[in-house]
Amino acid sequence: xxEVEQDPGPLSVPEGAIVxxxxxxxxxxxxxxxxxRQYSRKGPELLMYTYSSGNxxxxxxxxQVDKSSKYISLFIRDSQPSDxxxxxxxxxxxxxxxxxxxxxxxxxxx
Amino acid sequence: xxxxxxxxxxxxxxxxxxxxxxxxxxMDHENMFWYRQDPGLGLRLIYFSYDVKMKEKxxxxxxxxxxxxxKERFSLILESASTNQTSMYLCASSSLAxxxxxxxxxxxxx
Lengths: 110, 110
Fold this sequence. Notes:
The structure holds 2 protein chains of 2 kinds.
Chain A: E1 4-6, E2 11-14, E3 19-25, E4 32-38, E5 45-51, E6 54-58, E7 61-66, E8 71-76, E9 85-92, E10 98-100, E11 104-109
Parallel strand pairs in A: 2-11
Antiparallel strand pairs in A: 1-3, 3-8, 4-5, 4-9, 6-7, 7-8, 9-10, 9-11
Chain B: E1 4-6, E2 10-13, E3 19-21, E4 23-25, E5 31-38, E6 42-49, E7 56-57, E8 64-70, E9 73-78, E10 87-95, E11 98-101, E12 105-109
Parallel strand pairs in B: 2-12
Antiparallel strand pairs in B: 1-4, 3-9, 5-6, 5-10, 6-7, 8-9, 10-11, 10-12
């Protein structure tokens, strides 16, 4: 079993839709939970991160972490065509390693 | 502007060659990582380092080694390149949860 599971999609939504992206994990030592966005032929870029359980909002993006269920989510409100990219969840703990999910490819259609 | 620089964008090497991939960061980060990215598999951790001369195996270290002689530089070495090592290689450096990635090196082994 992988430490971090993420549905690779692809996911296609119309412009303006609410997008929900999710990951599950198995290692209870993870403490920081991140979401990265990767455009084609580029390296991933950090969107936002959360420490431990809870919610964090940044503009149209909301990250949620439920450590009891080992489940994290990213919500994108009022999605735009420019949001079309691959979204990767990532996690790290005390031992400094950083593990990623498979990435979900999102397309937002005008 | 923070930067992680990988020495090559594209490389073509022959089976059996020794291959060096170089990565330099200018953010004074303790942690550095090497991943490979393959379609449907996301980013898989090869090796990481949390300090100079320190290294830890990730999930897929077989066939690879690393070197970190200076804080800003982390090198990935393919001792004897094989065709199954054809992939996109991504270097990252991080401070806690925020990792910065290079542009990636697309390595083809023929």
